[in-house]
Each structure stands twice: as C-alpha cells, then as structure tokens.
C-alpha cells in the first residue's frame, strides 16, 4: 500500500510568499497555491457563535393522540376471547386470500356483479352505498372483490370517520368494517394505520360511555379494538 503515498507528480519548489490575490499563470502554479493555502489552514477551527441569534426550540406542532380508554370492569374482554377472535380472523383472511389467488390464476371463475360504485372521492355516496337499507347492498365477497386496495382503504376511512362522529356502531356498519378489515392488505400504509387506530379509539370511547350497551354492540366494540391492537399489531391500544 506504500505506492498510494507516492506523489503523482512533482510541483517543484514552493514560494511561501506567493501573492494569492493574483490569478495563477499556469496549472503548476495553481497547485502550488492550493498547497500554500492548505498549509495556512489550522488543524482545528472553532466558530464563535452569537447565542442571541439562535432561535429557541419550537414545540412540536403535532400532538400525540391518546390511546384507548380502559374498559369498565364489566365490559372488557378476556384474554382468551381476544386470542380466539384473532385466530378466527386470521383463518378467514387466509381463506379469502386463497380465493383471490385462484381467481387471478383462472382456477376459479368470477364475474363482477352489475352494481354501480360511487366515485371514490364521494364520501356521502359511499356512506349511502354501505349503510342505505333500501339499497340492500351487503358486504359479500362478490361485492368486495370489486374493490382494489385503494378503494378498501378509502372506504374504511369514510366509515371510521362516520363512527367517530356518530359515536355508535350499528349492525350494518359493523358488517362493512369487519369485511373491509378482512380484505385489507398488509403492510399497512401510514394513513391506513392511523385510520385503524382512530377506529380503536372511537370504539373505546363508545364503550366507556355511561349509556347501556346491548351485547351485540359491546361485542363489536371489543372486537374492533382487539383486531386493531392484536392482529394489526397496534399493541399499545390492546385491552389487558
């Protein structure tokens, strides 16, 4: 490795008193100027800063959202119940994923149903599509397979916003939420992860409300908190 220390070319004698204010007359003189300037530089340089010119640290403008509200003693699910729900949900996701793969490779035939889907940016249209009892559109696989992942993520966001604002989960919206979670692909996009966390928090707020909850609604609230926390790995939101 000694050859790396050998000079590439010789620049000759260097005049330390060279006038650096004048332009170099040749390439060799330019190299000599560089060497002279390098020798004049200190090995360590310390900058004198004026503390008065420095800005005070600004506070973070994004506030950390709180986690889930702890369930009242009589309303929280058991650990065994949560484990069962996660296992059942995982099996269902695997089964549906296999069905979709069979459709893609042509092993299973599927024809899109004749339904009119709202524009993806039409939030009101999608809420009517999912929740209007007169239209009688159910979240069947035949319907769900019409959605790409962008549709799934956007519709899920619309429904979570609805739950968060209305502070209730009716049976039909629970059906749609569960169905969309089943076909939601991983890894999650940051916005989708935030959406799921909002769903879990909204469910915990509804559950902690003083009003009476029937068994069906309580089960749905506990289920969505469980799936978001334990299946989608938002463990800080999990019930104990």
Automatic annotation (TrEMBL):
Part of the core SMN complex. GO terms for biological process: spliceosomal complex assembly; spliceosomal snRNP assembly. Keywords: Cytoplasm, mRNA processing, mRNA splicing. It is found in: Cytoplasm. It comes from Cardiocondyla obscurior. This is Gem-associated protein 2. One of its GO terms (cellular component) is SMN complex. Pfam families: SIP1. Gene3D superfamilies: 1.20.58.1070. The SMN complex catalyzes the assembly of small nuclear ribonucleoproteins (snRNPs), the building blocks of the spliceosome, and thereby plays an important role in the splicing of cellular pre-mRNAs. Belongs to the gemin-2 family. Signal peptide: none annotated. The keyword Transcription regulation does not apply. Its main location: cytoplasm.
């Amino acid at each position: 490795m000694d050859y790396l220390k050998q000079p590439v070319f010789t620049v000759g004698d260097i005049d330390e008193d060279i006038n650096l204010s004048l332009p170099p007359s040749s390439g060799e003189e330019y190299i000599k100027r560089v060497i002279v300037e390098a020798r004049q530089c200190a090995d360590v340089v310390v900058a004198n800063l004026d503390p008065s010119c420095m800005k005070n640290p600004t506070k973070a403008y994004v506030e950390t959202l709180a986690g889930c509200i702890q369930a009242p003693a009589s309303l929280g699910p058991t650990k065994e119940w949560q484990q069962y729900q996660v296992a059942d949900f995982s099996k269902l996701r695997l089964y549906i994923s296999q069905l979709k793969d069979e459709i893609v490779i042509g092993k299973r035939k599927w024809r899109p149903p004749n339904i009119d889907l709202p524009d993806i940016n039409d939030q009101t249209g999608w809420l009517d599509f999912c929740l209007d009892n007169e239209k009688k559109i159910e979240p069947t696989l035949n319907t769900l397979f019409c959605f790409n992942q962008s549709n799934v993520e956007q519709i899920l966001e619309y429904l979570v916003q609805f739950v968060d604002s209305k502070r209730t989960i009716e049976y039909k919206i629970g059906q749609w939420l569960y169905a969309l979670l089943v076909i939601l692909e991983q890894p999650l996009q940051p916005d989708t992860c935030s959406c799921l966390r909002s769903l879990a928090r909204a469910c915990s707020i509804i559950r902690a409300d003083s009003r009476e909850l029937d068994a069906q609604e309580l089960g749905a609230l506990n289920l969505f908190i469980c799936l978001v926390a334990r299946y989608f790995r938002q463990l800080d939101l999990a019930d104990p």
